[in-house]
Write a structure and sequence with these properties.
- The protein has two domains: 188 residues, Fructose-1,6-Bisphosphatase, Chain A, domain 1 (2-Layer Sandwich); 131 residues, 3-Layer(aba) Sandwich (D-Maltodextrin-Binding Protein, domain 2), CATH 3.40.190.
- 33% of the residues lie in helices and 22% in strands.
- It is built from nine helices and 16 strands.
- Strands 3-4-5-6-7-8-9 form a seven-stranded mixed sheet, sandwiched between helices. Strands 11-10-12-16-14 form a five-stranded mixed sheet, with helices on both faces. The chain has a two-stranded antiparallel sheet with strand order 1-2.
- Helix 2 packs antiparallel against helix 4.
- The protein binds 6-O-phosphono-alpha-D-fructofuranose.
- 6-O-phosphono-alpha-D-fructofuranose binds next to loops.
Length: 338
Amino acid sequence: MNDKVISLDRHIIDEQRRYGGRGDFSAILSQIIFAAKIVAAQVAHAGLVEDILGRTGNTNVQGEEVQKLDVYANNMFISALNYIGKVCVMASEEDPDLILLPKEHPKGEYVVMFDPLDGSSNVDVNVSIGTIFGIYKRVSDGEDGILEDCLQPGNQLFGAGYIIYSSSVNLVYSTGNGVNGFSLDPSVGEFVLSNPNIKIPPRGKIYSANEGNYAYWKAGTREYIDYLKSEGNKIGKPYSSRYIGSLVADFHRNLLKGGIFLYPEDIKDPKKPTGKLRLLYEANPLAYIAEQAGGYASTGYERILDIKPDKLHQRVPLIIGSKEDVLEYEEFARKNNP
Ligand code: P6P
């Protein structure tokens, strides 16, 4: 591999040398990468399993147990992080409670929280899906981590990132010194640097929102979307609407091209009074990436990264992307969303 090609493993070592030794943290990232490669291989032929190999209940034609892909991904990330002795507790969108490590495994100083396969319902229609992760230092003493270690605000994140399983597999991460993107080269099974030092444009021309919920948004949110669709906005022409319905895919596009993603609170659905997306393992890691790339993430009323969580699976309104767009949304929300 010539010097022009920077592998993700090499990038992690370079970051470690440049910004201070964090061998433990690098070991965690390496295990996340390992699990991501395995999940990517399964996602690549998931549709195949469903459609062509044929599933008979829980076993495929070879009689192997076919797990739901998100359960499979969840188990993969947990087992990849379980035994390395760097983690004291985990939390996952797939598990109602804390994930404690088996007694026989040594515990470490870090906390990892993740959504193992966000948007997995899109697999059978071949839409991009993703893994989102955030890494913290523990705040408790003792051997096992506790809930307090997970209920830290996003401004305490030590690092975060996501993997998007699409036409190609990309991994984007930050450890607080900017954002870098990598593409999986299937011919060698390595992630290689493809998007160095990502910066999100300060203002975009794209908005991403499920307008099917328009009637259930607060007045300020409806006014803001109407404003974007008019010629009276800051770019003098209607924004383009792009909505994939897979958070990681919508976020990744806006990160590279500029734009704003909105999943606001829903005044009709009692399950979504504070939006649909989860703070700990969806909003916070992406907010961290957005801000490291020069963007911003808000509920409309406060910075996502400053929220002190009080529940493992709490939901928040998520307005994220180009900084000027998100700040402009806040003006509408604060003025018209009592
Ligand atoms: P809606 C996928 O189910 C997900 O959790 C995110 O990936 C996505 O942004 C959102 O829900 C889509 O939700 O209500 O628009 O279908």
